[in-house]
Design a protein that fits this description.
Blueprint: H1 7-11, H2 18-28, H3 39-63, H4 77-115, H5 120-125
Helix pairs in contact: 3-4
Length: about 140
């Protein structure tokens, strides 16, 4: 990666664990070249993904605030509902971890943009969520 050397390392700064080094290396190996010409475009893509994921999590949590529903009156349904709730909570947690990682990357990109001479107004303009096209998936996979 050229432009922002060690972006993955900087994005994962402060995180610990064996998977952190691998994730940081994966960020570094993306082959993406961050340059003064494209830094804000890359920043915008990352921020849009953060926004999309956050909207999707909120929609899911609104729909299933109290957990997955029991689907039947049989003996297995209560156990299945608890299992599905536990599994979806774990998935939401993993998604939140991905959002946090993307936010770290975006902070590195914003820092890079400033070091390339981009103004604060230019960096902040990317955060104009009115341009983001967020349409979270509806529960059950329907749109």
């Amino acid at each position: 990666m050229t432009g922002v050397v060690g972006l993955g390392q900087r994005a994962m700064a402060g995180r610990q664990g064996p998977e952190v080094a691998a994730k940081a290396a994966a960020f570094d190996r993306l082959g993406m070249q961050v340059t003064p010409a494209n830094v804000l475009a890359i920043y915008a893509v990352i921020m849009e993904e953060v926004s999309r994921l956050q909207v999707s999590i909120r929609a899911f949590q609104t729909a299933y605030f109290e957990g997955m529903p029991q689907l039947g009156d049989d003996l297995v349904s209560p156990y299945a509902a608890r299992g599905f709730t536990q599994a979806t909570n774990q998935l939401v947690s993993k998604c939140q971890t991905a959002i946090d990682d993307l936010k770290r990357v975006s902070r590195g990109l914003a820092e890079a943009a400033r070091s390339y001479g981009k103004t604060e107004d230019q960096v902040n303009a990317v955060l104009s969520t009115s341009e983001f096209q967020n349409e979270p998936a509806r529960p059950g996979g329907r749109r």
